[in-house]
Amino acid sequence: MDDLRPTLMPLGDQALLVRFARRLEMRANQAAISLAHHLVANPPAGVGEIVPNLVSVLVRYDSEITSFDALAGALRLILGSEATEAELNGTKHHIQVRFGGAAGPDLEAVAAQLNLDVPDFIARHNAAPLQVLTTGFAPGFVYCGMHEEALHLPRRQEVRTRVMPGTILFAAGQTAITATAIPTGWHVIGQTEFRNFDPTATPPTMLHAGDSVQFEAMP
Amino acid sequence: MKIDITRAGPLATVQDRGRHGHFADGISASGPMDAAGFVRAAQLAETAADTGLEITMAGIAFTYTGKALKAGFSGGAFTLAINGKPEQWNAAYTLETGDKIDIKPGPAGNYGYIRFGADLDVPVVIGSRATNLIVGLGGFEGRALRPGDSLRLVPASGEILHAPETPVAPGPEAAIRFVWGIDADRFPAETLHAFTQSSFTISTKLDRMGVRLEDRDAVFTNARILSLVSDAIVPGDIQILGDGTPIVLMRDHQPTGGYPRIATLISADLDRFAQLRPGTKVQFAPVTIAHAQALMKKAR
Predict the structure, then answer these.
(1) Do B293 and A136 touch (CB under 8 A)?
(2) Predicted ipTM?
(3) Which residues of A touch B266 (CB under 8 A)?
(4) Degrees (nearest 5) of the Cα angle B188, B189, B193?
(5) Which of A145, B7, B182, B259 could bridge across to B239 with cysteines, CB 3.0–4.6 Å?
(6) Comparing C-alpha atoms, which of B106, B110, B44, B46 is closest to residue B81?
(7) Could you tell me if A140 lies within 8 Å of chain B, comparing CB atoms?
(8) Which residue in chain A has the smallest CA separation from B126?
(9) CA angle B41-B249-B125, nearest 5°?
(10) B290 CB near a chain A CB, below 8 Å?
(11) Is B108 on the interface with A (CB under 8 A)?
């Protein structure tokens, strides 16, 4: 992890961001999730919320109890130790997806752009479990990745103003699952019954960064 | 005890301290746009209640039904009438059953607060009663209040807030202070310099999610930074959209974003910024983190 050289920077006067990279790369994502898990288990004094993002960790703190410098010092010690290099050991989830048709209007175009037929694309898409890279763009929204290089595709030119909860999105080497209605520029390839957001439940979401997701095609 | 809304300007909502700790679930904290004004209304009402009404510039009118109940009014500068009689803003009154409260726009501010000697009886959703309009969560059915809505009030238990000894004077029209943002190093030095030297205008496009600024000095006209990795957002972040529009993210912001952030307003100035009306010119001044935190300490 030492060659990742994380940057510790203020995000306003009540939060600190530990950024492991400026591009999305798996080892930066792993490092962010590992650090977040370590901090949740061993929070430094004055630390409130700890949130792993794609390549960074947000650490909110109370400036009455600690300062940016004091916290950055404590975090550098943690980052310099082996403590955060533990293997991710998340929960494995199986998500049933109805691919294509009305539920996945972009599926055929996606497969065509990748020079695959639809059944091949679905098979390759579901071939291996993906990791939850991060959560939180919208309630219950999860990014899963990364797919093999051959399945990488940029976003669509046009943005759909609204897709429904349970929509399976595909772009940038990732598959995402919506849990609320949102606008999106990603390709819509399917739909799931699974809802990763229930405001009456504690916690309100089930999938967390570091978990793994096995997508399965519904007949 | 209840209030029946007879008139509501846009985006009048129920708020409490906010729904903290749920960024990873995809939920920002919400809570009052002018947090100090929200607390001041509770201090005036000497209430232990967590909840209160946040109103926008257009105001609100409602009828109170129930036993005598104290209510505090603060935040912004609105005009208040009770049963048609003009009363002071930034003050507390004891409401009697049948009283008609009418709040109209005043000379300054976007957000006003009404706190009662009782709690607004709305369900706790994910640990808070605050309305999150972007998600449609919490508050009164997850939405802004409308005429015809009836809200029950229930006894509050908790620590009673008392009025401060000296009333808090509104701040001078000084620059809004910031600390440099997480993507500041992506902007050319001239742009960073111009950002601190130019003035921006509060646009009419403002709500609980964000305040768009008019960049009449064209500081960001040629700023083209795209495709950043999505990262955590905090209230006060100034994000530069793809077309060069600066937007200051507020309490109902999306939890993550991929546009570059040049600066983050300091916590001590966020309330004052929220109260700036469309058309107001604003300048931004950089401070250190240590200074920003010392100002927060003083404000508490």
Answers:
(1) no
(2) 0.92
(3) 12-13
(4) 120
(5) B259
(6) B106
(7) yes
(8) A199
(9) 60
(10) yes
(11) no
